[in-house]
């Protein structure tokens, strides 16, 4: 039996030898302008979902494209939300199950915003790759798929079952996602042991990190009953 070092060395060697192919995959993904806040880009955002669904199927995952309904725009118009991908790879009862979350939409980007390169053209510069979504979040999602490919192609056993939840509205508040999560809580998500939110940053180019907590948000509505008449802030400021 190979040692852990030998095991990982084979996988690393596969990744290194397929680096150009993996970069090309990222280039293709970056080129799809999946700007979720833009009505004009909604078709491309939906195309982005199907692009990744096909990638998962190529790895042997079972994939469900979940319709999450329509978005009502401020002008009253209704358009389809990008669907959500629910995928599953492996069903070994002896293994733990990890849920991988990622998002496939991006924020708007124009060269005029201050980019030194075209945002939707992956560009290599000073040994770094630049492109909208390269790190947030298409690159990390592709990283999972490339890692799984490396395990499969080197005949290595993936040590966990993996489930996927990929959405296309994260940059717009994950609209439409919560009802789906509640609906599938007792079915698709019922056997999940761990969740990995693959939407984070490294501390530097050589220092990855794991985020184990977020601040979250609390909303309050406060009513204050104060003086019985208006008071001048310059005279009464601090005392009221």
Automatic annotation (TrEMBL):
<dbReference type="GO" id="GO:0008233">
    <property type="term" value="F:peptidase activity"/>
</dbReference>
<dbReference type="GO" id="GO:0046872">
    <property type="term" value="F:metal ion binding"/>
</dbReference>
<dbReference type="GO" id="GO:0006508">
    <property type="term" value="P:proteolysis"/>
</dbReference>
<keyword id="KW-0645">Protease</keyword>
<dbReference type="InterPro" id="IPR051458">
    <property type="entry name" value="Cyt/Met_Dipeptidase"/>
</dbReference>
<dbReference type="InterPro" id="IPR002933">
    <property type="entry name" value="Peptidase_M20"/>
</dbReference>
<protein>
    <submittedName>
        <fullName>Cytosolic non-specific dipeptidase</fullName>
    </submittedName>
</protein>
<keyword id="KW-0479">Metal-binding</keyword>
<keyword id="KW-0378">Hydrolase</keyword>
<dbReference type="Pfam" id="PF01546">
    <property type="entry name" value="Peptidase_M20"/>
</dbReference>
<dbReference type="InterPro" id="IPR001261">
    <property type="entry name" value="ArgE/DapE_CS"/>
</dbReference>
């Amino acid at each position: 039996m190979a040692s852990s070092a030998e095991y990982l060395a084979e996988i690393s060697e596969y990744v290194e030898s397929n680096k150009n192919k993996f970069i090309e995959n990222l280039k293709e993904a970056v080129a799809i302008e999946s700007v979720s806040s833009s009505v004009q880009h909604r078709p491309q955002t939906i195309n982005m979902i199907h692009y990744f669904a096909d990638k998962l199927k190529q790895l042997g995952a079972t994939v469900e494209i979940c319709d999450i309904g329509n978005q009502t725009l401020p002008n009253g118009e209704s358009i389809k939300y990008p669907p959500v991908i629910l995928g599953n790879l492996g069903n070994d009862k002896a293994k733990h199950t990890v849920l991988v979350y990622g998002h496939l939409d991006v924020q708007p980007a124009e060269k005029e915003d201050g980019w030194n390169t075209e945002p939707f053209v992956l560009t290599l510069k000073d040994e770094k790759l630049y492109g909208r979504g390269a790190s947030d979040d298409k690159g990390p999602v592709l990283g999972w798929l490339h890692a799984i490919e490396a395990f499969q192609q080197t005949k290595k056993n993936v040590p966990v079952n993996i489930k996927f939840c990929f959405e296309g509205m994260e940059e717009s508040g994950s609209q439409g996602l919560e009802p789906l999560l509640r609906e599938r809580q007792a079915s698709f998500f019922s056997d999940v042991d761990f969740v990995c939110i693959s939407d984070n940053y490294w501390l530097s180019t050589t220092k990855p990190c794991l985020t184990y907590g977020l601040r979250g948000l609390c909303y309050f509505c406060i009513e204050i009953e104060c003086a019985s008449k208006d008071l001048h802030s310059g005279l009464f400021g601090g005392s009221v």
